[in-house]
Structure formats: structure tokens, C-alpha cells
Amino acid sequence: MARLRVAVEYEGDHHRERVQFLRDVHRLNALHEAGWTVLRFTADHVLRAPQRTALTIARELARP
Questions:
Q1: Predicted local confidence at residue 51, as pLDDT
Q2: pLDDT reading at 1 higher than 60
Q3: Domain-wise residue ranges, the chain
Q4: For the chain, first and last CA: distance in Å?
Q5: pLDDT in tens, 8-57
Q6: 11 and 5 Cβ atoms separated by less than 8 Å
Q7: For residues 53 and 41, is the Cβ–Cβ distance under 8 A?
Q8: What local confidence, expressed as pLDDT, does residue 14 receive?
Q9: What is residue 15's predicted lDDT score, i.e. its pLDDT?
Q10: What is the Cα–Cα distance from 34 to 31, expressed in whole angstroms?
């Protein structure tokens, strides 16, 4: 059985602050180097298009 390496992140408004943004970039690059796929979503994605957001996640999880 293959191990999935998919992370789903909710990006709230605090991610716009410089210090948090810099931490996020560092963390995302480290995850990428470790073989992870990171899907990032905002309130608009989650609240205004929940079905599309769920479908995006499901498609990623279904990849071979």
C-alpha cells in the first residue's frame, strides 16, 4: 500500500502578515522537499465553494 503525502491547509488572514508568510514559505518548501503535496485553501474556498474544495482534495487523494 502506498503512503499518501497530502496536506490540506486553511490559510486565514493571519497568513498575510510578513512573519507568518515567511514561516509559511519555509514550511511549504520543506514539505515539498520531503515529497508532500500541499493543498492550500482560503475562507472563500471552504465557505463559498465547499463541494469544489472537497472535489479538489478527493482528486488529489485518488491520484496513483
A1: 98
A2: no
A3: 6-62
A4: 11
A5: 999 988 878 899 999 999 999 999 999 999 999 999 999 999 999 999 99
A6: no
A7: yes
A8: 84
A9: 79
A10: 5
Nearest-5° Cα angle at 15, 12 to 21: 160
The pTM (predicted TM-score) of the whole model is: 0.85
> How far, CA to CA in Å, does 17 sit from each of 12, 20, 44, 47?
10, 5, 19, 22
Give the position of cell 522537499.
33
Residue whose cell numbers read 514559505: 25
**Distances in Å between the alpha carbon of 58 and those of 8, 31, 63?**
11, 20, 9
Asked if 4 and 34 count as a contact pair (C-beta separation under 8 A), the reply is no
Would you call 10 helix, strand, or coil by DSSP?
Answer: strand
Backbone angles phi, psi at 38, to 5 degrees: -115, 120
DSSP class of residue 16?
G
